[in-house]
Fold ABC transporter ATP-binding protein.
Amino acid sequence: MREATKNYGSGGNAVQALRGISVDLARGSFTAVMGPSGSGKSTFLHCAAGLDRPTSGQVLLGGVPLSGMREAELTRLRRERIGFVFQAYNLLPALSVRDNITMPLRLSGTPLDRAWFDEVTSRVGIAEKLRKRPSELSGGQQQRVAIARALINRPDLVMADEPTGALDSHTGQEVLRLFRELVHDLGQTVLMVTHDPVAASYAHSVLFLADGRLVERMDRPEAKTVAERMAHFGGR
Ligand SMILES: Nc1ncnc2c1ncn2[C@@H]1O[C@H](COP(=O)(O)OP(=O)(O)OP(=O)(O)O)[C@@H](O)[C@H]1O
Ligand SMILES: [Mg+2]
């Protein structure tokens, strides 16, 4: 992302949600995004994922600028090259675990790669649950299903907005360990928004946003140092 800005509204009501952010996410990196409420984290994530367009500046995915793309192209790119994980899992309750995981393939018209499906489901630890409905699973298991769904298209980038926000701390840490394994073992690139310094400490580096600006980047974060920086930037 190069010099990205994002304004909402205009005139007296205008909000500058991003004020010139430049970031490179290396392939196989695990990056956490932190900052006070309203600092622009979700806006940053949405622009980086092509869910929203920056007002100025550029977003490139694998070297390809998103700015020249039409809506249909962007939609395809999001389906095929980005996996999303949300705080609220967003699974379809009427579908089995298997059908939830393979939903992105149906949307993008991609054939099922059986070996990859088996690898993903065993890695996230839900290979025994494929016939269940989401409501029959615990929160942690549902989030694992959502992670498998995010991986099924072999995306370039996995985006996670508060992925452990709805989980107790033990289950949350299992999910974070899973992210770290995906990064280390599969070379997956992960970008995660979190308010939790412990969650951020699982990442390789933390980006701190304040008032729409990237104010600090911390490599090899430790929970304690992250918490201290958050306090400094006025975060929770
Ligand atoms: N659709 C929108 N229309 C107008 N203003 C918006 C819109 N979305 C976000 N904003 C504003 O942009 C700024 C950044 O919002 P953003 O949601 O990115 O913050 P955040 O860091 O994700 O906050 P939180 O931690 O509360 O989720 C805020 O001032 C917000 O009010
Ligand atoms: Mg947000």
